[in-house]
């Protein structure tokens, strides 16, 4: 199925303030993530397996960061500890000062494999979170429509997920995650399975939406272009066991559009990431040679 342009039928008047206020802790700063001295070790049949080593990371409210690193380096594991799915073996994760011990509605998740309910329509999928949070049916439907408009899928509210393209399903996933007004949006390679052109469109649409809501975003990717294009900061992880080896400020102006991808400033940041990852890969290779 062909993609519809994003942001068709976009709502011009959005009144999110009431729902957003409902989701907020009164008077509290929202979306401040703190990862302190986190080690994550999995027990496997062949013994303990260190996935994340000594991770320290602070993400300020409203910041957009990317976790960048090679496949298998522990990005998803670190993100899942922020989500509350994987407990740190040692160290701690807090959000707005509260220790993370389980998943919660303050954190919205978007995965690479869309995880929509196939038996529910697009609108019902997005309305599900607000309904679970105790919002009435009419209001939940109206919230769902608002967010479907934001991702350009207003015309598809009664469609079932399996009739949509991969890109469209991911847009539903983003709408669904946002419909709970989370203070933190956790995205694990959400555009990884999409073709290059759809991917850039999705990135632009995501930035547009984020500029409106300013949630804190932690976005996992192994794609350097994607990390530079999207983020305020790129947190680079080493090969397994994942350590944080660099924290790069991305001072590219916003709003960002596709034309940025060929600018000298973009290229320079890309180069910096490439050099880091190349050096890291060489180090890992030399270690393996020594060990072998
Ligand atoms: N539940 C688990 N049990 C055992 N090992 C795991 C588990 N989850 C991930 N791993 C291992 O931890 C390492 C990091 O995995 P992951 O965080 O998925 O990497 P990434 O997301 O960077 O590709 C990998 O070696 C992976 O095989
Ligand atoms: Mg992963």
Automatic annotation (TrEMBL):
It comes from the Bacteria. One of its GO terms (molecular function) is ATP binding. SMART domains: AAA. The keyword DNA repair does not apply. Keywords: ATP-binding, Nucleotide-binding, Transport. Belongs to the ABC transporter superfamily. This is ABC transporter ATP-binding protein. The lineage of its organism: Bacteria, Pseudomonadati, Pseudomonadota, Gammaproteobacteria, Pseudomonadales.
